[in-house]
Design a protein that fits this description.
Elements (H helix, E strand, L loop, with lengths): L5 H5 L7 H15 L8 H17 L2 H10 L29 H5 L5 H8 L3 H4 L9 E7 L1 H6 L1 E12 L15 E2 L8 E8 L2 E8 L8 E2 L12 E12 L7 E5 L15 E7 L6 E3 L2 E9 H6 L1 E7 L2 E7 L7 E5 L15 E8 L6 H14 L11 H4 L3
Parallel strand pairs: 1-9, 11-15
Antiparallel strand pairs: 2-7, 3-6, 4-5, 8-9, 10-11, 12-13, 14-15
This protein binds zinc ion (2 copies).
One zinc ion binds next to loops.
């Protein structure tokens, strides 16, 4: 191995910026790209060298290592692991997958796409991951209070167990595509006013995957997945609110050809409650009391989300007074304590009275001589937030 200097290969200074390095690489790569210099063996060697240089200098971490340890650290076979971000597809088979990468942003871009009719991304068809699924579930406020495990039935595509998702009949294997030798791409030479142009297109025989199935799995017809209805236990946490989402990773549909599964999203709806309204972690309700209870005071029983509680009504309680029952609200879904219950007490004025009641009220009226006072405050009730 001869002593090389990657900076010299790219013709840049040691202090060159990432942008300058990229620009220099692109310029030279365009010049020496084997698709442009088909018969020039020297160009291909030069091109390989450019790629090797850019793979190191175009990557911040590798560049730092290179600057520190020098060339020896990056000779063939060495070079500390890590995915190279620069160039992938360079390898004897003739799949210059990054052809478009080099030209992108160079102005040549549009011309080349026009000829090839295909962009870099599309020439590499990867198997798509499985679709995400959405499942709507309705629970009661009581269930939201305690948290609950629900069994749900999810119809979905799952990885075929007979072929383990490969699509090839059990006992057989996928074969390397003989049309593209496994690269998934085929080269086509076209003539145009610019001269001879080589475009790289997706292999039609294998759909760009590089492999073909000779004996498809009979269970899944070679798709690698089958439709199944699966029962899944969903743990709904205590305190969950209406329209919350739960993401269950990997429980969506299986991907094609063994690609990863999608996720399952559970959308939780909490049924409106007969008594309580929820706002954040607090619960709100309303109760009526009699006129005598309000005047004289009383202890009443109030429903709570988990049962009942006593509420003391002090003597002289005004209508629409709000009482707070501390800690009787919903649990916080993140475990940060509990909300409160608020009870609005509305004093109900009787519309009819018995003879005796009327007599007593008249007696009371003579005793109290209450007079009306007039002032502002008509809209106060509307300003209350419930
Ligand atoms: Zn199968
Ligand atoms: Zn192929």
């Amino acid at each position: 191995m001869t002593k090389k200097d990657y900076y010299k290969t790219l013709g840049v200074d040691k202090n060159a910026s990432a942008e300058e390095i990229k620009r220099a690489y692109r310029k030279l790569a365009r010049k020496y790209h084997p698709d442009v210099n088909q018969d020039d063996k020297g160009a291909e060697a030069k091109f390989k060298e450019l790629n090797a240089a850019f793979e190191v200098l175009g990557n911040q971490q590798k560049k730092a290592q290179y600057d520190q340890f020098g060339h020896a650290a990056f000779q063939q076979g060495a070079g500390g692991g890590g995915g190279s971000q620069g160039f992938r597809g360079f390898g004897g088979g003739g799949g210059f997958s990054s052809f478009e990468d080099i030209f992108s942003g160079s102005g040549f871009d549009d011309i080349f796409s026009a000829f090839s009719g295909m962009r870099g991304e599309e020439t590499r068809r990867r198997s798509a991951p499985g679709a995400d699924l959405r499942y709507d579930i309705t629970i009661t406020l009581e269930e939201a209070y305690t948290g609950i495990t629900k069994k749900i039935q999810v119809p979905r595509f799952e990885k075929c167990s007979a072929c383990k998702g490969t699509g090839a009949k059990s006992g057989t294997a996928k074969k390397t595509c003989d049309k593209c030798n496994g690269s998934g791409q085929v080269r086509q030479i076209r003539r145009s006013f610019l001269g001879q142009i080589v475009t790289v297109g997706m292999c039609d025989k294998c759909g760009g995957r590089g492999t073909v199935i000779e004996t498809p799995c009979p269970e899944c017809s070679g798709n690698g997945r089958v439709k199944k209805t699966r029962t899944i236990d969903i743990d709904i946490p205590a305190g969950v609110d209406n329209d919350s989402h739960l993401r269950i990773a990997g429980e969506g549909e299986a991907g094609m050809n063994g690609a990863p599964s999608g996720d399952l999203y559970i959308v939780i709806h909490v049924k409106p409650h007969d008594i309580f309204e929820r706002y954040e972690n607090d619960l709100y309700c309303k109760t009526t009391i009699g006129i005598a209870q309000a005047i004289l005071g009383n202890e009443i029983e109030i429903p709570t989300i988990k049962g009942k509680a006593k509420l003391k009504i002090p003597a002289g309680t005004q209508s629409h007074t709000v009482f707070k029952l501390r800690g009787q609200g919903m649990p916080d879904v993140h475990g940060r304590g509990k909300g409160n219950q608020f009870v609005k007490v509305v004093v109900e004025i009787p519309k009819t009275l018995t003879k005796k009641q009327r007599q007593l009220m008249e007696e009371y009226a003579g005793e109290s001589q209450q007079k009306a006072t007039v002032g502002k405050g008509f809209f106060d009730k509307m300003k209350e937030y419930f």
